[in-house]
Amino acid sequence: MTTREPAAKSRTWQARLAGGSALPMLAVLLALLVLWYAGTVWLNAPLVIDRYERAGQAEWTAGQLVADTMAMDRPLLPAPHQILAELDKTVFEVAPNSRRSLVYHGWVTLSSALLGFAFGTLLGIVLAVGIVHLRTLERSLLPWIIASQTVPILAIAPMIIVVLGSLGFVGLVPKAIISAYLCFFPVTIGMVKGLTSPDPIHLDLVRTYSASTGQVFWKLRWPSSVVYLFASLKVAVALAIVGAIVGELPTGAQAGLGARLLSGSYYGQTVQIWAALVVAAVVAGLSVAAVGLAERLTLERMGGRP
Amino acid sequence: MVDVIDGKAQPVTQARASAPPAVEIRGLNLVFDAGDAPVTALADVDLSVARGDFVSLIGPSGCGKTTLLRVMADLERASSGTVRVNGVSPEAARLARAYGYVFQAPALYAWRSVLRNVTLPLEIMGLPRAERQERARRVLDLVNLGGFEGKFPWQLSGGMQQRVSIARALSFDPALLLMDEPFGALDEIIRDHLNEQLLRLWQRTGKTVIFVTHSIPEAVFLSTRIVVMSPRPGRIIDIIDSDLPAERTLDMRESAAFTAIAHRVRAGLKAGHSYDDA
Predict the structure, then answer these.
(1) Residue at B123 is within a domain
(2) Quick check: is B88 in a domain?
(3) What's the rounded Cα separation, in Å, for the pair A284 and A237?
(4) B124-161 residue pLDDT tens
(5) ipTM
């Protein structure tokens, strides 16, 4: 493993492009862009033509129409370059602590998502440990845990916000709890699987040492479950961000990506909506990547095969 | 448990003279309750293993030899009969950490280095860190794995992994070693080599070894006594005391004495007529 790694690092970027997954990904991206631009023209053209007619402008060329569909203030579907321009304006040109900055709104959402992720992970692990060690919990708790996920989060989120608001919790915590509500589930399911994953032979081994339940947990069950934990965490962290955004919708929150989406849809600011969506996707992608990095480092420390 | 880890606390000679046999089994029956048709895994087993003996349990698959070993280790419960390990019940012996168990598979923990696999039982028994490492290094030297402490299991061959698992069983210095086909998954060349090493280890440490196998040469080469078993139900059909000298070499397998014992084992296995309905 040690001999192969430097070789991989010294490969040129051209070789990586040709050999890796970058080229197919670029091809897909290109195809998407082409489709998107086609969609922009097709969807916005009726609006533009309507505007021409109202302005009494009878003469227009196809080129003019295409150009105009991509330069509308409130298009049905904004062109990618309009979204990029909006991103440039709201991410790079304004101060990150300004209310007009998507960095600011992204951080508001991310911070409550991370808090909810922490809550949810902890809750998920505690539930899994209980289910694995107490048979009665498995029968009494598991059906409710599954039922909890069949309730649409959009229906339950306003109630959580309102109830917690009347108890004096506002801002970060109610949103974090909605995130936790979504992301404890994959952690519980994954960890129940992980904590019961040791081979019978490994359990027999610690039995011959007459190890206590606690020792079996820390020396066998917990390390065996790490792979399952990280798989669950990747799902959970993405769900936590969804939960935080959903939590921002019903309250008319002033800040956060959810608030941007909501105000964008009030005023028909489709470009603003799409820019917020892109930022949400980037935040989610980076969070999943961060969990992936933590996974790699942890498994390396645990002697994992490269 | 402390005095078992530190077994030297008792005067050895006195312990030998008055001590009960390593294993004493009388009228053991074990029935697995498999729904509508209970399976008799072991029937009327009587066996006594003296301290310092190397006893092999040999028989075809399904004859209950592994189950018998697991009963001694308190990994299975007898349905009737008495079992004494070091003069106490298997459960008491297990709680006192009186035996080391080597499984068919190495059963190493993939996330622990070789050294930390060997220190696992010592951690559970609560030994201080320095002593854990010192003991682990000593037993790893004993199985010729000095220098591999920092490797992880996947970096070792199957034979080396099984030697690590033997070192792990030796690490807390139990007087009794229970070995369940430890070399069953290895090729014959490595198996021969490990048999020689195991024999030397047994001679050096004076431990009692109970060794499950289905290889006749392996059983004859290693054992002072060979217990021949037959299936359906699992029972003992012959116990052979080996008259081979204590010093053994692989070449001895061509000697007349060796062949005679092997012949008697084979005859015993055949008498169990286990092949007709296999």
Answers:
(1) no
(2) yes
(3) 7
(4) 999 999 999 999 999 898 888 888 999 999 999 988 99
(5) 0.84
Number of C-beta neighbours around residue B43 at 10 A: 17
CA A304 to chain centre: 27
Domain with B12 in it: 2-98+174-271
For residues A208 and B139, give the distance between their C-alpha atoms in angstroms, rounded to a whole number.
19
- According to DSSP, the residues that pair with B176 across neighbouring strands are B99, B208
Map tokens 């699992």 to a residue: B234
Q: How far apart are CA B89 and CA B85, in angstroms?
A: 6
Distance CA A227, CA A244 (A): 26
Rounded to whole angstroms, how far apart are CA atoms B71 and B89? 10
Cα separation, A19 vs A180, in Å, equals: 40
Domain A102-301 in CATH 1.10.3720.10? The answer is yes
Nearest 5°: phi and psi at B12?
A: -65, -45
Q: What is the CATH number of the domain that holds B181?
A: 3.40.50.300
Rounded to whole angstroms, how far apart are CA atoms B94 and B72? 9
**Cβ B111–A303 below 8 Å, yes or no?**
yes
Beta bridge partners of B47: B25
Cα A290 from Cα A131, distance rounded (Å): 29
Are A202 and B110 an interchain contact pair (Cβ–Cβ within 8 Å)?
A: no
pTM of the model: 0.81
pLDDT 10s digit of each residue in chain A, 306 long? 344 444 445 566 666 666 677 788 899 999 999 999 999 999 998 888 888 888 887 778 888 888 888 888 888 899 999 999 989 888 888 888 888 888 899 998 999 999 999 999 999 999 999 999 988 888 888 889 988 888 888 888 888 888 888 888 877 888 899 999 999 999 999 999 999 999 999 999 999 999 999 999 999 999 999 999 999 999 999 999 999 998 888 766 678 888 888 888 888 888 989 999 999 999 999 999 999 999 999 998 888 765
* A147: closest CA of chain B, how far (Å): 34
Ranges for all domains in chain A classified under CATH 1.10.3720.10: 102-301
Total number of domains in chain B: 1
Q: CB-hemisphere CA count at 13 Å for A264?
A: 24
Six-digit token pair at A208?
A: 């011959």
With an 8 Å Cβ cutoff, are B120 and A305 in contact?
no
Q: Which residue(s) pair with B39 in the sheet?
A: B32
Rg of chain A, C-alpha, whole Å:
25
Please indicate whether, in this complex, the C-beta atoms of B101 and A305 are within 8 angstroms of each other: no
Q: Is residue B56 part of a domain?
A: yes
Q: Note the pLDDT of residue A306.
A: 58
Residues in A closer than 8 angstroms to B111, CB to CB, are 223, 226, 302-304
What are the pLDDT digits (tens) for B234-274? 888 888 888 888 778 888 888 888 888 888 888 888 877 65
The pair of structure tokens assigned to A161 is: 């916000």
Residue B240 included in any domain: yes
- What gap in Å lies between CA B271 and CA A38, rounded to an integer? 84
Distance CA B8, CA A177 (A): 59
